[in-house]
Design goal:
The structure holds three protein chains of three kinds.
Chain A: H1 2-12, H2 25-28, H3 31-38, H4 45-55, H5 66-70, H6 73-76, H7 80-83, E1 86-88, E2 93-95, H8 97-109, H9 120-131, H10 147-157, H11 168-172, E3 179-180, E4 183-184, E5 195-197, E6 202-204, H12 206-216, H13 227-239, E7 250-251
Parallel strand pairs in A: 5-7
Antiparallel strand pairs in A: 1-2, 3-4, 5-6
Chain B: E1 3-6, E2 10-11, E3 16-23, E4 45-52, E5 55-62, E6 71-77, E7 82-90, E8 95-104
Parallel strand pairs in B: 2-8
Antiparallel strand pairs in B: 1-3, 3-6, 4-5, 4-7, 7-8
Chain C: H1 5-23, H2 28-39, E1 44-46, E2 49-52, E3 56-57, E4 63-69, E5 79-85, E6 93-98, E7 107-112, E8 118-126, E9 131-140
Parallel strand pairs in C: 1-9, 3-9
Antiparallel strand pairs in C: 2-4, 4-7, 5-6, 5-8, 8-9
The chains are: A mainly alpha, B mainly beta, C alpha+beta.
Chain lengths: 252, 105, 148
């Protein structure tokens, strides 16, 4: 009987896999921080502007710019950040948007490798591309080849880790809305990455944030851009499907 | 390092306008240690000055307690069409400048 | 209750640590010295200054602050300077704003770092040499300068 009801609801409300008591980090911030995010004098703006400049700047040995292939980012990049991570044909793996930018740089611009994931220019491009999805709903890529990685991400989300022996789900599903010291525990929807964290005093990507979480439970964090982190992002994005992409957010 | 300047293009004579500046800068305090345990040298913007037709009309002295990417907002009485210049200087003495034209009519 | 050996030892051992930490921070005394430096020891009267700052701050790395002063801002009678002081950052001086009659309005804003809950002071110097002030107690739940 219960299964029948669930089935009916799922059938009647396709795409609404989650009832919307979902809250974003923005919803959980106080009015002062929300005002800072909404202010035109939001410091994250600098990275969007840097990214805009870099978009049409020739780079690497091919001296090609992003714009040479993709044209105007406002057209070609609209909605891209809302559906990433995606599947990379030639490597046969899931890649996040920062990984995609890195692949583009090495394959098409033939820039010197390796560059750090947190390379400021790359983060600026990520910020600029993500900015083209601001206000759009998160729409996870339905490519079936992503399913194994997404399932792995879901399993990781519920896996206990670290000396505190805690899983993501224990905080962000079971105790979301509660408090860890004075900080409200968010539901962990990745609606806005990269983001300007006051804690960092700069912008950073989702993998930097996830590493912070793992360090918090005294676990050895997965490497930036690792298959585990891409898998987690795939799951988090499907869990956040339909929520609005913030670009670029402020977080405490 | 770039800057965002929020200033109207034009104003009525005698109108008081609001000017806001956001400067891209780490504002490294000089009190923090880096991964090697050594102090990270201080790197801050020490002053932000606004000149109106070449005359200083506002200055802010900033200390390490000002946020990274410092923000300053102030007011100015518009009376003559002309250049409004913004000058900011860091603790190494490096100066940057940016100007806008305000039309008063 | 008698002082146990352990308590005494703990107190002794923690004393140098406490002293060391205090030495690295601005204290209300060193803030008073910075304030005296600004005023030249002249009296400061509470009033005429409005200090707007959140009472509860989630992250001390960026705290919005605005100050306005009741003044006609004429050539003869205006605010010359507004100084902001804090009590427990490493330095008490936070910001100083130099204004004049061309300002039109004595209202400034910025964003500051606060290394913990404390009282923030705004002091204005007028053309007649008088000093006016406002203070606000701020609670910071995650102070600036903490380890990430």
């Amino acid at each position: 009987m219960r299964r029948a009801i669930v089935f009916t609801v799922a059938f009647l409300l396709p795409g609404l896999a989650w009832s919307d008591d979902r809250r974003t980090g923005y919803d959980d911030m106080n009015a002062d921080l929300q005002a800072l995010q909404d202010d035109p004098m939001n410091p994250a703006t600098f990275w969007v502007l840097d990214g805009e400049r870099l978009w049409s700047e020739p780079a690497g040995t091919t001296a090609q710019s992003c714009a040479d292939c993709h044209g105007s980012a406002e057209d070609s990049m609209q909605g891209v950040a809302a559906r990433y991570p995606s599947f990379d044909e030639s490597s046969g793996t899931a890649v996040d948007l920062l990984g995609r930018i890195a692949l583009c740089q090495s394959r098409h611009q033939q820039t010197a490798q390796p560059r750090d994931r947190s390379d400021p220019d790359r983060l600026a491009l990520l910020a600029y591309v993500t900015h083209q999805s601001r206000g759009l709903p998160i729409m996870p890529d339905e490519d079936p080849r992503l399913a194994p990685a997404r399932a792995r991400g879901e399993a990781l989300f519920s896996s206990r880790m670290g000396q505190l022996n805690l899983s993501c789900a224990q905080c962000h599903d079971d105790n979301a809305g509660g408090y860890l010291a004075a900080a409200r525990i968010p539901q962990a929807h990745p609606t806005g990455y990269p983001q300007y964290r006051l804690e960092w005093e700069t912008i950073g990507s989702l993998d930097r944030r996830l590493a912070g979480c793992m360090t918090g439970v005294r676990a050895d964090p997965f490497a930036p851009g690792s298959p585990e982190l891409v898998a987690l992002e795939l799951f988090l994005k499907s869990r956040a499907a339909g929520l609005t992409v913030e670009a670029l957010p402020i977080r405490p | 390092m770039s800057v965002l300047i929020n200033i109207p293009d034009s104003a009525a004579p005698g109108e008081i306008i609001e000017i806001k500046l956001l400067i891209q800068h780490p504002m490294e305090t000089g009190f923090r240690t880096g991964p090697d345990g050594a102090l990270v040298p201080r790197d801050i913007i020490e002053s932000v000055t606004c000149l109106y037709l070449g005359e200083e009309v506002f200055r802010a002295d900033l200390y390490p307690a000002i946020t990274a990417n410092p923000f300053v907002g102030f007011h100015l009485r518009a009376d003559t069409t002309g250049e409004i210049e913004f000058i900011w200087t860091d603790n190494a003495g490096v100066t940057s400048r940016e100007a806008r034209t305000l039309t008063v009519a | 209750m008698t002082l146990s050996r352990r308590t005494a030892l703990t107190a002794l051992l923690s004393l140098p640590l406490v002293l060391q930490t205090r030495a690295a921070l601005a204290t209300p005394e060193s803030m008073q010295a910075a304030l005296d430096d600004f005023t030249g020891g002249a009296p400061v009267t509470p009033g005429r200054v409005t200090l707007k700052i959140p009472l509860l701050v989630e992250n001390g790395n960026s705290v919005p602050l605005s100050v306005s002063v009741d003044s006609p801002m004429t050539a003869e009678d205006h605010v010359e300077q507004i100084a902001i002081f804090n009590e427990i950052n490493p330095l008490p001086d936070t910001a100083r704003f130099h204004l004049g009659p061309r300002s039109g309005l004595a209202a400034v804003e910025t964003r500051i770092r606060l290394n913990g809950s404390q009282t923030v002071h705004a002091v204005a110097r007028m053309t007649d040499g008088s000093f006016w002030s406002a203070t606000t107690d701020v609670i910071v739940t995650a102070p600036a300068c903490r380890e990430v």
